[in-house]
Amino acid sequence: MNPVGRSLLAVTNRSSVRRVFAESKSGRRLSLRFVAGETLDDAVAASRTINESGARVSLDHLGEHVTTGTEAVSARDDYLRCLDRVHAEGLDANISVKLTQLGLGFDDDLAVESLGALAGRASEGGTTVTIDMEESQHVERTVATFETVQSRYGNVGIAVQSYLYRTPADLDRIVARGGHVRLCKGAYAEPAAVAHQEKGGVDAAFDALTRRLMAT
Ligand SMILES: Cc1cc2nc3c(=O)[nH]c(=O)nc-3n(C[C@H](O)[C@H](O)[C@H](O)COP(=O)(O)OP(=O)(O)OC[C@H]3O[C@@H](n4cnc5c(N)ncnc54)[C@H](O)[C@@H]3O)c2cc1C
């Protein structure tokens, strides 16, 4: 796995996270917002600093759309090591994970099994797992995977995208299972059949979903 693939993205619920650049060995320079570093040690150090400022942390191991079971299992194992370290260091941190990194799309059963392993390990340390939301073709399977694993472990949450027309209905399913929610606008180019195309529509949907979550 390349160094960028090993990077851990630390994000907080505050806007003070800095913008940094990461450079791979091959010389590809990538502008990565919110990157805490390229090693688990970097992520731990950044997390401690953020915790000391009073904010919680979610650690995201960069990488998505793996194509082999070996890569998916490797990503799961990296996350398990991350959780062990979070617990050992006493950090106030959880993990965020993309299901295509765990095999969704080519081995959905593996993705469910691996997410369960992560939720179980997180639960042992009293923390949670948040599922990132990816392209629209993955949304139904992502929500269904959330339902399966949340039913078993009760410490799983999920990101939802205000640009998608389906999100209010997905929110019903998520709230019904007591999942925590990360509301975002959406980061992918989606067709008009499934998503608002105007920024005003995305923003209005974001406002409506925010009000609904605040009232939940
Ligand atoms: C901690 C964190 C976690 C995140 N997790 C996820 C995740 O799991 N899944 C995900 O998809 N995204 C995720 N995002 C990204 C998020 O969805 C937004 O893309 C990002 O935060 C930018 O939003 P903004 O309000 O800053 O920008 P804004 O520019 O205000 O809004 C961006 C949204 O508006 C739309 N938009 C902007 N300008 C136009 C325009 N001119 N015409 C049409 N549409 C326009 C974009 O398509 C996008 O949907 C995450 C972001 C953060 C910070």
- Give a list of the ligands: flavin-adenine dinucleotide
Tell me roughly what share of residues is in helical segments. Answer: 40-55%
- The percent range for strand residues is 15-25%
Unreliable segments of 5+ consecutive residues:
1-31
Note the run of SSEs as H and E: HEEEEHEHEHEHEHEH
Order the strands across the largest sheet as they lie in space.
4-1-5-6-7-8-9
| Count of helical stretches | 7
The main sheet comes to: 7 strands, mixed
**Alpha-carbon Rg, integer:** 17 Å
Mean pLDDT: 87
Outline:
globular
Number of strands: 9
Q: For this entry, what is the oligomeric state of its chains?
A: single chain
What is the terminal-to-terminal distance?
A: 41 Å
Secondary-structure content class: alpha/beta
What topology emerges from the helices and strands here?
Blueprint: H1 3-6, E1 8-12, E2 19-23, E3 29-33, E4 35-37, H2 40-52, E5 57-61, H3 69-89, E6 93-97, H4 108-124, E7 129-131, H5 139-153, E8 156-161, H6 167-176, E9 180-184, H7 199-215
Parallel strand pairs: 5-6, 6-7, 7-8, 8-9
Antiparallel strand pairs: 1-4, 1-5, 2-3
Bound molecules: flavin-adenine dinucleotide.
